[in-house]
Amino acid sequence: MTVHQPIAAVGAFLDRPLGSLIDGTWLGEAEGGMIDVVDPATGSTLTSVAAGSARAVQQAVDAARASFADGRWCNLPPEERRRILWRFADMLSENLEELAQLDVLDNGMPLAFAQWEINGCIDWLRHFSGETTRLFGRHASAAISGGGHDVHAYSSMQPVGVVALIVPWNAPAGNMMIKLAPALAAGNSCIVKPAEDTPLTALRIGELALEAGIPAGVVNILIGHGHDVGQALADHVDIDKVSFTGSTETGKHIVRASAGNLKRVTLELGGKSPVIVFDDADIEAAISQVAMGIFANSGQICFAGSRLYVQRGVYDRLMAGLVDFATRLKVGSGLDPANLLGPLISGKQRDRVSAYMERGRSQGAEVVTGGNSVGTQGFFVEPTIFANVARDMDIVREEIFGPVLVATPFDDAEDAIRAANDTRYGLGAGIFSRDVNKVHRVARRLNAGNIWVNCYGITHPALPFGGFKESGWGREMGSEVMAAFSETKSVLIKLAE
Ligand code: NAP
Ligand code: MG
């Protein structure tokens, strides 16, 4: 099969001077230094982007605040905002190949995965464009009396205001759009801070937002380091909300920083999601689902199914199938369609994952497949499965964020539920079984925000997504996210006698 060459638009974009996009204007100054954008498949530098610091943060906040105060977006007729968001989706669609290739080069993901990611962004924009005309509250007059008076009372929703959207590198466009689409639909003015490892699609999408007709100042893309501009956003007293996706550690940091003005905070954090396979499951069908539940995007997915619990009677069969599947997975550049696994995001991440694999071995776990990095160019590691693991091993307790699965046999459902819930996280969980009664009973008792049965990782913008416990606060998508990007107001009017 032929390796794709990046299309001309990608080269043209990379040749441009890039920096923050604030108030509809590119900032050339690099108060925070230049950040090299590295292709993780080769380790080579694609371009450098100008990073902002305190001054750029203030410019972004001022631009967003001014755009919110004069109502250029939030006070547009909702149908107009709907039309513009739909056009924004059209613009992503027209530039899908460029955006997908930018994410392949920047993040390393396989092209098919990137295309799926950008299609997801389009889908979310179209879905949430429809929410612009559904932002209503409740009419309460018939249900209450205002201290014996005749009252007219209702609740309503209004945008929170200036919101900072801080996102990680593992799905750069998707992580951004899952927040941006509902934030804009609710009428907020936004400052997006992409991860320093993957700024490209955020900048291109920021530009497309302007071309689609979203007024300048409403979508600002702020480039900079997390400990610098990220922290400044979390601290800033003129920001009304931070919606954050990233590590649990940084999430806790953001919560502490939010105390200054008690800004609203929602968090999508890490996971160590369990997958339970019962002996009555369709094992052949489960193999690819379980495998891609952890190996997709090289395990760099927050809800990756990284802990596998298999009923003892089918353990050997499922494990043999998984090993066979893993050894046939082609690892290499995301631009070659034959490759289903790309590199990890960086040398740092590859070393972190390798260190976990080493700790797994030294703590007594058995590598049944993989366990090594691949080649000398780029940041590749093999899809890896550990057996003979114990509940207190680091590879069982901690999020690795790499293509590493840990597997344990179990005897009965009680065993499996206990083991699955034995974690500080609670993002996803998988159940494989043909017994509908068992499935419902187990799903009820798993402490996770998203449960997948006989599949893994399917999401829909109408369904809330998020985590229990240390996997986060609040939910993305669904009506829940619209509430999270809105303030609720109650209005009570005493009618004259
Ligand atoms: P991270 O270090 O927490 O970074 C996430 C974002 O926060 C980046 O934009 C980062 O900027 C910024 N940041 C870093 N320090 C900050 C600070 N002190 N204040 C404000 N912002 C700061 O996360 P990561 O390690 O890159 O990403 C992987 C993690 O994200 C995993 O734990 C994964 O589970 C989680 N994740 C969760 C979901 C979900 O939906 N639940 C989805 C994807 C990923 P820089 O890049 O410039 O440092
Ligand atoms: Mg990169």
List keywords for this structure.
Aldehyde Dehydrogenase, Chain A, domain 1; 2 domains; binds NADP nicotinamide-adenine-dinucleotide phosphate; Aldehyde Dehydrogenase, Chain A, domain 2; 21 strands; 497 residues; alpha/beta; binds magnesium ion
Q: Residue share in helices?
A: 25-40%
Shape descriptor: globular
How many domain modules? 2
CATH fold-level assignment of the largest domain: Aldehyde Dehydrogenase, Chain A, domain 1
CATH architecture of the largest domain: 3-Layer(aba) Sandwich
* Alpha carbon gyration radius: 24 Å
Q: Could you explain how this protein is built, in words?
A:
There is one protein chain. With 497 residues, the chain is α/β, with parallel strands linked by helices. It has 2 domains: 8-269 and 471-490, Aldehyde Dehydrogenase, Chain A, domain 1, CATH 3.40.605.10; 274-461, 3-Layer(aba) Sandwich (Aldehyde Dehydrogenase, Chain A, domain 2). It has helices at 8-15, 54-69, 78-94, 96-107, 111-129, 172-185, 200-212, 226-235, 248-257, 283-295, 312-328, 347-362, 394-397, 413-420, 436-445, 478-484; strands spanning 21-22, 25-26, 34-38, 45-50, 151-159, 162-166, 189-193, 219-221, 241-245, 264-268, 273-277, 305-311, 366-369, 373-374, 380-381, 384-387, 404-410, 428-432, 450-453, 472-473, 486-494. The strands form 6 sheets. A 7-stranded mixed β-sheet has the order 13-16-17-12-11-18-19, with helices on both faces. It has a 6-stranded mixed β-sheet with strand order 8-7-6-9-10-20, with helices on both faces. Helix 4 packs across helix 5 (111-129) and helix 5 packs parallel to helix 6 (172-185). The mean pLDDT is 97. The protein binds NADP nicotinamide-adenine-dinucleotide phosphate (NAP) and magnesium ion (MG). NADP nicotinamide-adenine-dinucleotide phosphate binds next to helix 8 and helix 9.
